[in-house]
Structure to design on (453 residues):
């Protein structure tokens, strides 16, 4: 075996012919002299061992590798041709990982660099692949244990020139999927190669609506990454903008969550994406824009496309409530003025937008909301209902804490230093300082306790 490894033909012949050395004997790794010679590229020794002494060409070492595997992996094209064409070595045999000889050849590297083979200086790895597929019948769509084909492997490793070669020249299946459900289109989209995406979609009719096991599509991947060019290309191929992944996220939801304005505009303006679609948590694109603090996106969704500002998520929260939690006065003002957000909606904790602002001590936002509360509050005393619902206070007591807005003329806000603040008001022809919200709902205070004439 040492002689086969070093290429000493005369010693190999002497040991076999004169001393009857076993050509199929294996070392501790399971390798034979034939395997080692194929690995090192000694074709003369291979011809001797196989042609004259019948060495087993398909024997595997401990890693399930054959001589053909090693020759292909090391770029020994003359040996590949000899073993597969002249001797009949199995070109579709697989190792422990399920990889084929073809995959080993791909592992040689990035074909953009055009690596040169050892014994044939003018031949590239592509030539070896052509021989294996076109002449020797290697299965170009064979999968390894992870569901990878040669094409998927090349796309995963970013060998875009090789992807085009396999698809354009050898007809590799562009819609085959790995164990995660990922197609070559998805992998190329993830790599951001617009030209290859165009080839796959326009020339080879790659399925643009194929889904990963988690429900993701190529469009979602591009939207997440902010790749406007690929999103536009996919959008012209009848892409399904309503598709949701396992989290209930659409491409628009992902674009909004990542703040990709151009993609948001394209999806909504040109593809008609649903601006009110909700994910599994009940969140809409508008809510995600609020979460990102993107007033520009909010103006687009609400002002131009009338996104529903009063949609509630699974916790009952609205976009307005979320804006208040983030203390975004500008967003809050826009939602109530331009979006006509309902300030009286209650979340599942029984809180309205105003109560949330009060609880957090956001006095500027309280001042902002007050005219809208006064304009919309009805004589049913919604605020009282909210407190009664959120606490154990009886409704009749909670109601006594509030004066009907129709009876109170708020004149101006007085900064009194308390959480709720006070308003200078006119009630029953008397000047009064009226607390906006009671700081202590357990005191059972009366109206007289809370109004200072």
């Amino acid at each position: 075996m040492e002689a086969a490894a070093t290429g000493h033909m005369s010693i190999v012949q002497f040991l076999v012919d004169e001393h009857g050395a076993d050509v199929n004997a294996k070392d501790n790794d399971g390798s034979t002299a034939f395997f080692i010679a194929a690995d090192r590229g000694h074709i003369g020794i291979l011809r001797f061992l196989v042609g004259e002494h019948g060495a087993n060409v398909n024997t595997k070492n401990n890693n399930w590798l054959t001589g053909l595997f090693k020759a292909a992996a090391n770029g020994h094209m003359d040996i590949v041709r000899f073993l597969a064409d002249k001797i009949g070595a199995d070109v579709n045999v697989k190792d422990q990982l399920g990889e084929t000889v073809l995959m080993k050849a791909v592992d040689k590297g990035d074909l953009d660099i055009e690596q040169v083979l050892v014994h044939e200086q003018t031949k590239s790895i592509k030539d070896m692949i052509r021989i294996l597929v076109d002449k020797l019948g290697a299965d170009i769509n064979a999968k390894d244990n992870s569901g990878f084909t040669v094409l998927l492997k090349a796309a995963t490793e970013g060998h875009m020139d090789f992807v085009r070669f396999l698809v354009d020249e050898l007809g590799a299946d562009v819609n085959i999927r790995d164990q995660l459900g990922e197609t070559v289109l998805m992998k190329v989209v993830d790599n951001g190669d617009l030209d290859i995406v165009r080839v796959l979609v326009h020339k080879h009719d790659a399925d643009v609506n194929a889904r990963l096991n988690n429900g993701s599509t190529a469009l979602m991947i591009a939207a997440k990454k902010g790749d406007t060019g690929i999103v536009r290309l996919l959008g012209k191929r009848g892409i399904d903008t309503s598709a949701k992944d396992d989290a209930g996220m659409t491409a628009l939801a992902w674009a909004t969550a990542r703040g990709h304005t151009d993609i948001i505009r394209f999806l909504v303006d040109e593809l008609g994406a649903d601006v009110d679609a909700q994910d599994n948590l009940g969140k809409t694109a508008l809510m995600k824009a609020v979460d990102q603090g993107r007033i520009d996106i909010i103006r687009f969704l609400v002002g131009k496309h009338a996104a529903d500002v009063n949609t509630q998520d699974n916790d009952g929260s609205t976009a307005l409530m979320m804006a208040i939690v983030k203390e975004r006065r500008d967003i809050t003002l826009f939602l109530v003025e331009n979006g006509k957000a309902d300030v009286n909606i209650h979340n599942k904790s029984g809180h309205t937008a105003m109560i949330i602002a009060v609880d957090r001590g956001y006095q500027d936002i309280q001042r902002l909301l007050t005219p809208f509360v006064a304009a919309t509050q009805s004589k049913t005393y919604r605020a009282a209902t909210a407190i009664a619902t959120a606490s154990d206070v009886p409704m009749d007591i909670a109601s006594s804490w509030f004066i009907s807005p129709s009876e109170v003329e708020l004149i101006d806000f007085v900064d009194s230093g308390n959480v709720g603040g006070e308003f200078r008001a006119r009630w029953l022809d008397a000047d009064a300082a009226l607390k906006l919200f009671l700081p202590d709902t357990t005191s059972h205070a009366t109206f007289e306790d809370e109004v200072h004439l």
